[in-house]
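Hello,

Our lab assistant flagged a job as stuck in the queue for most of the afternoon. It eventually completed. Since we weren't sure the result was trustworthy after the delay, we are filing this so someone can double-check. Below is the sequence as submitted and the structure that was eventually returned. Let us know if re-running is recommended.
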Amino acid sequence: MITCFSGHAHQRRVRLVTVLAVLVECWGKPIDLFQTCHRLPVQRCGSSFLDSFQHFSSLPLNRRLAFLDLRLCISSLEHAVSDDGDDEPRLFMSSFFQELQRRKVYRVAAAYIIAAGFIIQIGSAVFPAWELPNWTLRLVIVLLLIGFPIALILAWAYDVTPQGIQATPRVPGAHRRRNIILLVAAGAIISTAAGFFLLPRASARKIDKSVAVLPFQNLTDEKANAYFAEGIQNEILTKLATVRDLKVISRTSTAKYQSKPDNLKTVAQELGVSTILEGTVQRAGDKVRVNVQLIDARGDTHLWANSYDRDFKDVLAVESEVAAQIADALKANLSPSESHVLAAARTENTEAYDFFLRGQYEFHQAESSLAADAYDRADAFYRQALARDPNFAEAAAELARCRLSRHWFVSPLAPAELEEVKSLIDRALALAPNSPEAHFALGLFFYWGHRQYENALAEFNRTLELQPNNADARAYCAWVYRRRGEWERSLTDSQRAEELDPRDASIPTNIGVTCNVLRLWKDAERAELRALAIDPHNTQAAMFLVLTRLTTTGDVDSARRALDDFPDLIKSIPGGAGGPRGATGAGDVSAVITWPVYLDVIERRFTDAFQAVEKRVVNDDRAHLQQLAGRVAIRVLAGEPEAAKSMGEEALPLLEARFKERPDDTFAMTELSWVYLALARNADALRLSRQAADTISIEKDALAGPNFQIGLAQIEARAGAPEEAIKRLRRLLSIPAGGAASIAALKIDPVWDPIRTRPDFQQLLSGPEQIGPNK
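-- returned structure --
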């Protein structure tokens, strides 16, 4: 008897393990209920039971899981823990399952599972659209799992009758206590098992809709077609940037990588994305082949791939198809306007489009090198594109942007030339009122052309409405806020731009500039070092690192070390809008002499500084005028009045001619002020320096304004107005103006030697300087 009972127990354990194994295997997977039922050790799964669930076999995975009837599990468990004998366990379990049926617990359990599955399904779709965090769905699932045993207990205890909710009548002789324990245990086990599978899926439910489009590999034998491969990549990226539901990394960052990097996971981590688009382009005459593949970098798995063999005239459609299929693969929610942008072509004229791509390629080279000839080539290609298609709105907008970039960084445009730029932008907007390129160009026109920062900000924000992933527009919002003295907003937008363009060295460079102005010296140095880690040849980052180290400690040797890895040619190039070649220039003597030559001046090595300026290669009239003014300024600072006067007389007519031609040129005003100082024309020097400081005042420009104020203070200190100079310095030390005035720099700069022994100047050196934004 004992042996027989042990055999039955063993069979029951085997059947129970089989049931649990089948259920675990099927959980969360597409299942065939007929096949699953036949695999279970159950004898009472008749056709009537299966027929009631036949339509569920065609439902999606998550719906099948929700509708899986509890009776299948319970019936299987009943048979698993029983045998064909009439022993007590079988009778006990039979009575338990009969009670479940009598008390209608089956129905409540099935209804609860159906309702819970429906709630989870709705939550999975709706919560991401509402941008709710992942934990909200997990909380809902946990509450539903906890509620399941409670629902079973309530179903056991109560019944819904025509007279209302009433307690279920008891049956004499039922094992009431053991039944309740079994019911609670079954509910808890089912909830725990369901939670084991549902919660990890809830944590990973949201697709990371982020993508980086790496440079497309040029497979064409003619390497001159590199512009074409870059153009295809850039156009796909530009279209994707309009999709608000995606995070799209800017071209500037992706350009740092190879077409097929060895470690995609590392690249994805550096760019902050989960998916990478790789591609190749091959062009032979009028035939084009484009191969693309979208890769999940986390698991190095292909999400989607395609190959396109088209005539060149149809290549524009390829870019639209690729962008649309990527958005679909990442399950991006597209608005009607976004769908229209993805499908639209910039121009129907393929020859115009080819010239446009060539212009884009040259413009990117010009932005990197600030070389005038690269700007000239880009300008010519854009104009040829417009000649082939006068209605090519983006070509007009990009031509305007190219012209404005040259104006700001290389050589300022005359007022008539700026008006020509405005007409190009107006033309683009008339052709395409919702062109993000046109609105961005208009923002640059207001910013770079006329310092109308409110209008510029409106246009950059409009660009972001049309193209939410436009890192340039986000960055320029930050730079406008900085010009307006809204420092914290500037840093916030800078960080948001850095998320979209994490490998663009110009963004941390400018973050360093902002921190330098705020006298957050350590943050400034960290930002410039981060920029140099991204681009070791970034001249602007190196120059601002020099300035930061000097204004922080006055340690010239430490400042020089920032330039150790830079060739002499690069050291002599004045970069950025703060340099003399651009539209801004700067208002102090260091801009006239230029960095790093001014380091020699600070160490009073005037002969070395003079020789460095003499040896500088000049290739345009403006650089030549700067060289002449720099020679004069060095002689003035060295205390050599006769040599300074002689050189000033040589430079005077050329600089006055320039100022007469361009009376709005603030840098010419600064240069001419030092020439007048050398000629002992102190009143003229003060007049011109004040004019420059009024033209770009702190109120108009919180970033550049202090540079012109410090320049005026330098002239005042040497032209017989020391009280005004010290008053001006005191104000600069009390506001965010770290790039222009710091106590460490005042202590060592020879420009202040004429007033150095004054008590009020010495009092400044022992006083405070503001750290951080305006108080």
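-- support follow-up --
The delay was a queue issue, not a problem with the job. The result is valid. The longest helix spans residues 176-203. The two ends are 92 Å apart (CA to CA).
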